[in-house]
Design goal:
The structure holds three protein chains of three kinds. By secondary structure, chain A is mainly alpha-helical. Chain A contains 13 helices and two strands, in the order αααααββαααααααα. The radius of gyration of chain A is 20 Å and the shape is globular. The two termini of chain A are about 40 Å apart. Classes of the chains: A mainly alpha, B alpha/beta, C mainly alpha.
Chain lengths: ~300, ~240, ~350
């Protein structure tokens, strides 16, 4: 009896919402993990890459297209932001053999810079187009398949497509194999004639692009403003760490665990103790990360590998 | 073939090498020996564009390669076998070799693979195995093969026998000598194992505190009792 | 344009107060990062903690010490409660002084506890994991402060007793003085700490964790000590800033209370207290000038000037990192006097 009633507590709507959020969060986390693998730096500017995706959707919709098409613009703009960060800031620092800690501050400062620019953009959109550019929400523009909101389907498809493409890229193309070689042993890759900085630059474009895609999906899920990336940056890192910062395909695992823990668990809790608890939802990912760091600092995927 | 002239280099502000000149002729094995921290690895890193060069020049067949980035130098017919972490342990043995060959624009990779497996038959048995599971000696063979499959004119080897069992040490040293003879490759051999290195070397350099203090034939070096005792730990 | 004298005085007080608070924070950062090598990207956590706990407890404690009998909630009904508290405090400088000390002690303790909570999951881990954890944990303080109404009355914030009210027209001057005194003590303490065995141990760990561990120095213990000291200072900074403004809302942001202090320390030179002093002075002056002349800028810009702040500071940081990573006044190696004498004698011999 207890089991059945607990299942009923999680409504189908909550599960779909959890699925959507997990997919979007996974897309965000994949980029963080990829960059950590290639450049060995936690990229704090990922927050703004995601927000850039949000405004890509806004721009596309102002141009008269469906905001879902913002995914493509988001990929390009996010990718370009990653490209600029690596080429203009990180690469000169790397050449000076700066410590990882200096690189982290550099990504933090780039995030602040982009945050300022995104706010300027939002102000500009607000005055020029008379839209509420700090309250971007496209839920009413979304389609639905038998009651399931389109964003759930699109996010999951975007995630699956991304993972498959990434797998093909890394395992079936010369470029990808070279990138993997750089991830594993930069010095050796260099001696084989692989242009390591070019490979890293490429990884920053890809990671920024994926973050942009995730950002473009976000306004279909929740109300967005220039702050939205910063709001979720802690959660992105939680997902990435939970999956294992060294495991690219661990990121979706972390994303789904964190996403479901946050959305589904909190709704179960809410039905027991009251709806006030939902305001504390952001604490769940952090708690999960804290537990993971203490028990399995290398991430969940590492457990499987150690056994196998 | 390879000509390093009055090289000053290091890492950022850390000046390691002072006016170092080294050269290596065709089909020659040149041993660079010296105590720990003398700058032997830095010498190879400088040749390969990994360390920072302040002044001096590095030439291959008269072509200036000083200050070129490493990935460009890698295409100039020179292969560098790093010390210790010199294979992709996540990839299989064959994948390791194939990556290296594909970036060297080798036309017939399968033929090259067969050649490599003739030199090191054990690698053929392990070809599908993850490189991380190889033993220390097998790793070194793979590392040398990764360099060799690029069909280089010059092979830079950084302590290929470090940490190996005596059996493997002899094998590796023997193979290096064979490779040079059969394939006409020049070898710059940086070694801790002075005795073994001098057995196959045509000429030797002794590097101490970033400076060359001896150049000459191995037999001449053997008669320099002072150097052998003070810096190379050889003699009574 | 002629500025009236009291406007200049007001500007200076405001500048010095903010400078003092930021100096405490940058000194704290210097102890955590400069001395112990902890990449404290979540400074805001302890600062906001100190500020919010002061907001929550200050009126409660004042009511209790002054012996006021009331059923009103000191947070939710703070205006009504303070209308009883403040007139009494205005005539009792001594009680006010004791209250300030109590608040500081609470701010420091709470800050230290938060620091420990923040660092606990990653205290054994590498620098990058540590940085992520510290940053991520700092982000939740505002979630809690906004959600948990009894803490600060929700998003609108809470008033605190006017502990400098007895000084009348000079209250802001006195408040600034109090901040500067604590800042000066923090500065001298940091200078002293560097010269103690503890300071040297922390530096040894910063330079090479493995080597320090092999000498029997516990990484966990010393990281915890540095975090506790640093976070206690941050907590006091939060308390002082709340008492200065007599008001607190859950709006401490990463930009102002983590990023800016980092920028100040970077400009001055990580690990150098003189550098922190200089960097803090430069940035607070810049900030104040920008705010003061904001209206003249606004005429030219089609957006809010505050965003220009973000853009410029982001660029400035990148430039400092690339072109002057050691800062303006870099850390100098500290060599104890007796050893320095011996070295000098050796040099003379040659």
């Amino acid at each position: 009896m207890g089991w059945v009633s607990k299942v009923e507590i999680i409504s189908l709507g909550t599960l779909i919402s959890a699925l959507t959020w997990s997919s979007i969060l996974s897309l965000m986390a994949i980029g963080i993990t990829l960059l950590y693998r290639t450049t060995k730096v936690p990229n704090f500017a990922h927050a703004s890459f995601v927000t850039t995706g949000v405004y890509s959707a806004t721009i596309v919709s102002l141009m008269g297209f469906h905001p879902y098409l913002g995914m493509f613009l988001g990929f390009i703009l996010g990718g370009l932001e990653g490209l600029v960060l690596f080429y203009a800031i990180l690469e000169p620092l790397r050449r000076r053999r700066s410590s990882i800690f200096i690189l982290m501050i550099a990504t933090l400062s780039y995030d602040i810079l982009l945050y300022g620019l995104l706010n300027v953009l939002a102000d500009d959109l607000q005055t020029t187009y008379k839209i509420l550019a700090r309250m971007i929400y496209y839920s009413r523009l979304d389609f639905s398949i038998g009651g399931v909101p389109g964003v759930a389907v699109i996010s999951l498809l975007a995630l699956i497509t991304t993972v498959i493409l990434l797998y093909i890229l890394l395992n079936r193309t010369t470029l990808g194999v070279a990138l993997r070689a750089c991830m594993e042993n930069t010095a050796l890759a260099q001696t084989l004639g692989i242009n390591v900085s070019l490979m890293l630059l490429f990884s920053w474009f890809i990671a920024g692009g994926i973050a942009g895609v995730a950002g473009a999906l976000l306004p279909f899920y929740t109300m967005c403003g220039p702050y939205i990336g910063m709001l979720y940056i802690a959660e992105m890192f939680c997902a990435s760490i939970l999956g294992g910062l060294d495991q690219i395909y661990g990121a979706p695992l972390g994303g789904f665990l964190i996403g479901f823990a946050k959305v589904a668990l909190i709704s179960v809790l809410a039905s027991f103790v009251g709806p006030w608890i939902t305001e504390y939802a952001p604490i769940i990912p952090l708690a999960a990360m804290a537990v993971a760091l203490v028990l399995v600092p290398k991430g969940l995927v590492a457990i499987k590998i150690r056994r196998g | 073939m390879l000509k390093v002239e009055s090289l000053n280099s290091g890492y950022g502000k850390l000046h390691v090498l002072y006016d170092v000149s080294v050269d290596c002729d065709k089909e020659e094995i040149v041993a660079v020996v010296g105590p720990n921290g003398a700058g032997k690895t830095t010498l190879l890193n400088s040749i390969f564009g990994i360390a920072d060069i302040y002044s001096g020049s590095v030439k291959i067949d008269g072509e200036e390669i000083t200050k070129l980035p490493a990935h460009v130098i890698a295409r100039k017919g020179i292969a560098y076998v790093l010390q210790m972490i010199n294979i992709f342990s996540e990839l299989s043995v064959e994948e390791n070799l194939r990556i290296s060959a594909s970036y060297a624009k080798i036309p017939d990779i399968d033929k090259k693979l067969r050649e490599i497996f003739e030199i090191f038959p054990i690698l053929s048995e392990r070809r599908k195995q993850r490189a991380g599971t190889l033993s220390g000696g097998e790793r070194q063979m793979l590392a040398i093969s990764i360099g060799l499959i690029r069909d280089p004119k010059i092979l830079l080897l950084d302590e290929p026998t470090a940490g190996l069992m005596p059996l493997y040490v002899d094998l590796i040293i023997k193979k290096i000598n064979e490779i040079r003879k059969e394939r006409g490759i020049s070898v710059v051999l940086v070694e801790q194992n002075v005795k073994k290195a001098l057995e196959i070397a045509d000429r030797a350099y002794v590097l101490v505190s970033g400076q060359i203090i001896f150049r000459g034939s191995p037999s001449d070096l053997a008669s320099e009792k002072e150097i052998m005792r003070l810096y190379l730990g050889m003699g009574e | 344009m002629q500025l009236p004298l009291n406007e200049i005085a007001l500007f200076m007080t405001d500048f010095l107060a903010l400078f003092g608070v930021y100096l405490i924070v940058t000194i704290s950062l210097n102890i955590q990062r400069g001395l112990a090598g902890i990449p404290q990207f979540g400074l805001m956590f302890a600062i906001a903690g100190g500020a919010y706990i002061t907001g929550n407890m200050a009126t409660r404690i004042a009511v209790w010490i002054l012996g006021i009998k009331t059923d009103l909630d000191p947070v939710i009904d703070c205006t009504a409660v303070l209308s009883m508290v403040n007139p009494m405090l205005n005539t009792q400088p001594m009680t006010s002084f004791i209250l300030i000390l109590i608040y500081l002690a609470i701010g420091a303790t709470f800050g230290a506890v938060l620091g420990l909570i923040q660092v606990a999951p990653a205290i054994r881990l590498r620098e990058d994991y540590l940085a992520i954890t510290l940053l991520a944990f700092a982000e939740i303080i505002n979630v809690i402060a906004t959600a948990y109404k009894p803490l600060l009355g929700g998003a609108f914030g809470v008033q605190v007793p006017s502990v400098y009210g007895w000084a009348g027209g000079y209250r802001y001057g006195v408040a600034t003085l109090a901040i500067l005194v604590i800042a000066a003590i923090s500065y001298l303490y940091a200078e002293y700490l560097e010269r103690t065995p503890l300071g040297r141990t922390l530096k040894a760990i910063r330079e090479n964790e493995v080597a320090a561990a092999s000498l029997g120095k516990s990484l966990v213990k010393y990281r915890a000590i540095a975090i506790v000291i640093g976070s206690a200072l941050c907590g006091m900074a939060g308390t002082l800033w709340t008492l200065y403004g007599e008001y607190v809302t859950p709006t401490y942001t990463r930009f102002y209370w983590t990023f800016l202090p980092w920028l100040m320390v970077l400009l001055g030179g990580i690990g150098s207290n003189r550098g922190a002093l200089l960097g803090t002075a430069i940035f607070v002056a810049l900030d104040k000038l920008i705010i003061y002349y904001k209206h003249s800028f606004e005429a030219f810009l089609p957006f809010d000037v505050v965003w220009l702040d973000y853009i410029l500071l982001g660029i400035i940081t990148a430039i400092i990192l690339i072109y002057r990573p050691q800062g303006l006044l870099p850390e100098r190696p500290y060599i104890p006097k007796d050893i320095r004498k011996r070295i000098e004698e050796k040099i003379k011999q040659f």
